[in-house]
Amino acid sequence: MNFRIADTFTTSLARLTGEEQKLVKTTAFDLQMDPTGNGHSFHKLDRAKDQNFWSVRVSRDIRLIVHKTAGSLLLCYVDHHDKAYQWAERRRLEIHPATGAAQWVEIRERVQEIVVPKHVGTARPARTALFGQYSDEQLLAYGVPPSFLADVRAADEDSLLELANHLPGEAAEALLELATGGTPSAQMALPQGADPFQHPDAQRRFRVMSDVDELARALEYPWDKWTVFLHPSQRRMVERDHNGPARVSGSAGTGKTVVALHRAVYLARRDEDVRILLTTFSDTLAYVLRDQLFRLVYNQPRLAERIDVAAMDAIGIRLYSAEFGKPVFASHEEIASLLKSAAGQADGVKANAAFLSAEWDDVVDAWQVNGWEAYRDAKRLGRKTRLPEAQRALLWQVFAKVKEELRQAGKITRAEMFSKLAEAMPKRKYPVFDHIVVDEAQDIGVQPLRFLAAIAGNRANALFFAGDLGQRIFQQPFSWKSLGVDVRGRSRTLNINYRTSHQIRSRADRLLGMEVSDVDGNVESRKGTISVFNGPEPVIRSYDSAEQEIQAVGRWLRQCAAHGVLPHEMGVFVRSVDELLRAQSAVAAAGLQRRVLGKDMATEEGFVSITTMHLAKGMEFKMVAVMACDDEVIPSQARIATAADEAELTEIYNTERQLLYVACTRARDRLHVSAVKPASEFLQDLLGEPAARRACL
């Protein structure tokens, strides 16, 4: 007998108390060992339309809803007695007539009428039905249950999102894509007699548990459905073979990191002799990846041993130490001092300190330019200040002197470390890693990428990247193709947003263009991205003083707590450490405990998390307050002051805008963005208001 769990079961389990969850898990393990249920009280649900629904007594008040047939036992839902029964009475497990996929279908007579709010005093034109022109055959091909065909044809812009909440995931996603101008693919149709649970769309909500260990993994972190259930588009990207470097992209919340994690585990399972590197650009994000990987493979130690999780710098230092000895790095301040000293000794050099530092960082060091001819011919991508050859010759005297002083001091830069490793890796008899999976790849640097390419060589499936160009906040754009990393033809985009409500996503998207392209011409589009759930409109406000902002955010936090949001499900973000006090004061005004997150980004139950926008990457909270978005705070005036030319100023504005986008899209259900007047111009974009009204900010 097949023993399965549904995503509706893991979701409902997460809502119970810790003690209740323990009782449910014990019952689940018992049922897996003996699906006949000996020793447990089974009760047939006579009022349920699906005659295969039974309830299992967990405790005096907790009931587990199961779907039982001769060949299958499916754990469906768990809750307190009445609520569990009501859930079962509203649903039926059906096999879709067109696709052959197993689906939960709500009973039509029990689906409540969708109420559209009426706007008093303003006559609104009748809304046009969005899908009236589609035939039954077309809608069924998208997975729409037959009982919902009439409602789908009648849906308009006001009712679609509410209707989508009652539909199976594949149908809701297809309709939302159609409504936003896209053309979804028709669902795969299983051959007659095939197992309906083997359909890709069925596998996103139902999973066979082959043994006790697999069930334990599924129930250990029931609130993270991604550890068990994958969307078909994600699964295809996880399991696809590539004959060269590949990249998965998508806007915030579309599950890129989920794909990266599952990709690493998939490759490790496929070959027990492989070594896999799962990496990202910062220690903070590496901590998060390590925690998430643990959730996937915590009781499979041999599998976990094949996957090395480390930040790029950490893995670079480890390998450099083995090849050349422990590196001694020159600090940013030390290099700035050397540049200033060398410029003062060179006749005719009139460049300011900001220009010299930027030229060093973005050209000389980033591309490891080591001679006059190389600097003379270097493509100064992103550097619009024109440099005649004579001026370049003067500047090279400065840079050459700095390089020589670093050499004499026995110090290197991180870019130099990766450059030397890139030269050493091809000389090894065996690669240090068979497969490399990179998360947040949009912020990887020139030499780190060159280093990874050197390890990968030309092997199939050796390099896999996950990232979003719209979230690039640390790294200057550059050509991957010039380093031998060409993802053209092997780049895919995720467009289903699981993390962020429609209202938050659509507001945040106003900060970015609908299309973002890289230097090599690869285009990432946001046009087809859809959110699968609804939520309240974000609150975007500016105040006359910092104290007013603090009190307003404090009231909003209290309101969220009153609606059942727990402190550890709340995050408060600011641009930099200089604004942390405002965030701390707002949490205190709400009467809640707070914790300023450290490098490991570990949240704590009972505490509201506070951190900077840069460190917010990789985080997720039910509600987020983004504070202190003042005109002098974001974009950062300190960064603007360092701009050496117009191109660099544009790049600063772009990355600051993308930084606010990152902060806003950490929110799942509720978002509050605030400032002290005058507010940042970026808030004007979030509001989408005409210029005539912007003065109120």
What would your notes on this structure say?
The chain is of the alpha/beta class and 697 residues long. It is 39% helix and 16% strand. It is built from 26 helices and 24 strands. The strands form six sheets. A six-stranded mixed beta sheet has the order 2-3-4-5-1-8. α20 links the parallel β12 and β13. The radius of gyration is 28 Å and the shape is globular.
Topology overview:
Blueprint: E1 2-6, H1 7-14, H2 18-33, E2 42-44, E3 53-57, E4 62-69, E5 72-80, H3 81-89, E6 91-95, E7 102-106, H4 136-141, H5 149-154, H6 160-164, H7 169-179, H8 200-203, E8 206-208, H9 212-220, H10 232-239, E9 246-249, H11 256-270, E10 276-280, H12 283-297, H13 301-304, E11 307-311, H14 312-324, H15 332-345, H16 353-365, H17 372-377, H18 389-409, H19 414-424, E12 435-439, H20 446-456, E13 463-467, E14 491-493, E15 496-497, H21 502-508, E16 515-517, E17 523-525, E18 530-531, E19 539-543, H22 546-562, E20 570-574, H23 580-589, E21 594-596, E22 608-612, E23 621-626, H24 637-641, H25 646-664, E24 667-676, H26 681-687
Parallel strand pairs: 1-5, 9-13, 9-14, 10-11, 10-12, 12-13, 15-18, 19-24, 20-22, 20-23, 21-22, 23-24
Antiparallel strand pairs: 1-8, 2-3, 3-4, 4-5, 6-7, 16-17
Helix pairs in contact: 2-9, 10-11, 11-12, 14-19, 15-18, 19-20, 22-23
